[in-house]
Amino acid sequence: xxxxxxxxxxxxxxxxxxxxxxxxxxxxxxxxxxxxxxxxxxxxxxxxxxxxxxxxxxxxxxxxxxxxxxxxxxxxxxxxxxxxxxxxxxxxxxxxxxxxxxxxxxxxxxxxxxxxxxxxxxxxxxxxxxxxxxxxxxxxxxxxxxxxxxxxxxxxxxxxxxxxxxxxxxxxxxxxxxxxxxxxxxxxxxxxxxxxxxxxxxxxxxxxxxxxxxxxxxxxxxxxxxxxxxxxx
Length: 233
Hints:
By secondary structure, the chain is an alpha+beta fold.
């Protein structure tokens, strides 16, 4: 793991800091540093006191929780420009999950106390942070509603839609290619099911032309068909 100073353009590319002027950007530069983590490295562990706020500059990071039986539930997959965790800004907290790199990743690190100063001193940062937290609350409400009100088949279809929106690039009017690699076990851990159950549904979805896989192994999702099925259910 190495560290260095982030350049001004990379820092301005992060949504939270995009409205800062050059003098303000230089201040954030002085308060932060960049670290590179190899694949399958823990950036932080669940229940540790929060020390840093992280911005993913390059790579892919799995955010997941573990219960007392050792069962894993994936909370989020962070990709380029994502910030994590989403708590700890206003009072002392512990990390709510593990953060583990899925490939070599370059991460901007800002010590929590310094990040609080940035939020306090720059109104554009605080406004964008509040909007980000509001989006996360809305997303969590939607996920809870899906879990409580929808059968498992529909939950998986809705998960595929979320994956399309978060990580997909449109190939044509119907198909999206997912830019990150997610195993069937990963999908099971996101939705709180078993790999065997996910395998069975995905095999059925492939036969029905709802999903497919590229030659490189990327998941392909037919968003139009999923939306039609959801409307019929």
